[in-house]
Structures are given as structure tokens and as C-alpha cells.
Specification:
The protein is mainly alpha-helical and 144 residues long. The protein is built from six helices and two strands; from the N terminus they run H-H-H-E-E-H-H-H. It has helices spanning 5-19, 28-35, 39-51, 76-84, 109-123, 128-143, and strands spanning 55-58, 64-67.
Length: 144
């Protein structure tokens, strides 16, 4: 499994919005500058996030974007699945019920299931709020 640039940038964009979650709208241009990411690429990503209801927008001179919910309500897994699709480590684990004709005799299935569960346990329990707190710790440690 490999997270694409789109997934990584979506997560950075959402963390940026969470870090700047002060009730005011945040412009894509500002996020692009802080994150050193192309504005055009961020516009494509934020369109996906907006369509899914993860962010809300306002047009005009005071316009921009903000989180639709509190940072603690977003998991890394939800953001990555939205932008990446399935996070299953192998195709046979993508469906609720394994469709593989070899599932009953596949010795590798156990390890794939263990890896898949470990990944899900991490990405489905880490929230944007956790990441904001980690970022704040980094800032404090950097200043020391």
C-alpha cells in the first residue's frame, strides 16, 4: 500500500484548516503558501473534500474554506479513504466478504488480514485533533 500525493496533500490541507480553525475562512492561497503545494492541486483536492461535506466554503472577498466539523470528528482513515479509495493492503480484503476463490486455502490471507487490521487500527483512531496536538508539540520542541 502506498499513499499518493493526493492523499498526503489532503491530509496536510485538513491539518492546516484544523490549525487555523478560529471561526474565520481560510483561503486556498494561504494554505498553498504555508504547505508549499500548488494552488491548482489544492483546489482539486478541496473540491473532493467539499463534495463529501468535510469542508464548507464561502465565496467572495471574505471567502475561503473551513472545517465542517470539529477536528476531533475527522479520522485520518476517513480522509485517506475519501481521497485514495480503499486502504486495503490487498485486493481480496477490499470487500466486506472476501470474494477470492482461494480464500479458504490461502496461507497468506492471515498475514494480509493482520497487516490490514494494523493499518486500520492506526488510521481509524488518529484524528485531526491528534495531529494538531502533535504539530503544536513540534512547534514547542523546535522553539526550545
Amino acid at each position: 500500500m502506498r499513499i499518493s500525493t493526493k492523499g498526503r496533500y489532503a491530509l496536510r490541507l485538513m491539518v492546516d484548516l484544523a490549525m487555523n480553525n478560529n471561526g474565520e475562512m481560510v483561503r486556498i492561497k494561504e494554505i498553498a503558501q504555508r504547505q508549499n503545494i500548488s494552488e491548482k492541486y489544492l483546489e482539486q483536492i478541496i473540491a473532493v473534500l467539499k463534495k463529501a461535506g468535510f469542508v464548507r466554503s464561502l465565496r467572495g472577498s471574505q471567502g475561503g474554506y473551513q472545517l465542517a466539523k470539529e477536528p476531533k470528528e475527522y479520522t485520518v482513515g476517513a480522509i485517506l479513504r475519501l481521497t485514495e479509495g480503499s486502504m486495503a493492503v490487498v485486493a481480496c480484503l477490499e470487500d466486506q466478504e472476501n470474494q477470492c476463490t482461494h480464500a479458504n486455502q490461502c496461507v497468506s490471507l492471515k498475514i494480509w488480514t493482520m497487516i490490514d487490521k494494523a493499518v486500520s487500527d492506526v488510521i481509524d483512531h488518529v484524528t485531526l485533533q491528534d495531529m494538531v496536538e502533535w504539530e503544536m508539540e513540534n512547534v514547542v520542541n523546535y522553539m526550545i
